[in-house]
Amino acid sequence: MHIPDSFLIPPEICALMYAISLAFLIWSWKKAKATYTRSFAPILAMSSAFVFAAQMINFPIVYGTSGHLVGAIFLAALLGPHMAILGMTIVLMIQALVFADGGLLTFGANVFNMAVIGGISFFIVKPLATHQKTSHFLAGIFAASWLAVILGALACGIEVGFSPLFAEAGGTAVTVPAMLFWHTIIGLIEAIITTTILSQLHRLQPTLLFGITAFRGNPIERKP
After folding, report:
1. Is pTM beyond 0.70 here?
2. Burial, 99: exposed, middle or buried (Cβ in 10 Å; 0-12, 13-18, 19+)?
3. Is residue 131 part of a domain?
């Protein structure tokens, strides 16, 4: 879902996505500052570094296609959705500046597709968490992880569909189905990996998982 500058998304689309992403980043920063009374920079840096490293590992799909973990829901489960948006933005910025993984003109779109959508998707888990059972929370994690990938792929397909590079090939009628087809599979793998990691983390260190999330005032009991 990293859109390179070579895809030539129209300038107005790039500007719009920058404005939308910036608004979400300002909102997330204010929410994070209000939630965490102490400096959250160290934990944000360490968590972002873990996601950055995890994204470097690609897994094969079919026909030479590969995918990688996005990690937005994992960050949201640890730090809360607002911090996840900030953390994912840091990851995407390093990838764009150091590894040219995603363009600078399209950076706003990439932030929206993976950071913003990923963080917001975590809100699916909140209603399930009120059941006070671990199984409900993990079901929400699975659903949120899959949906974050699907919605990000949908947004990416729409944005790329407006590119002159794909306009003659059919535009969004081609790019959206292509993105959704492969990311349906990638989303399932993401959901399985994220749910497995968080399940083990909750089993071994439940206070770590729920002590620093948005749910720390509503701890979830360890029920089967």
Report:
1. yes
2. exposed
3. yes
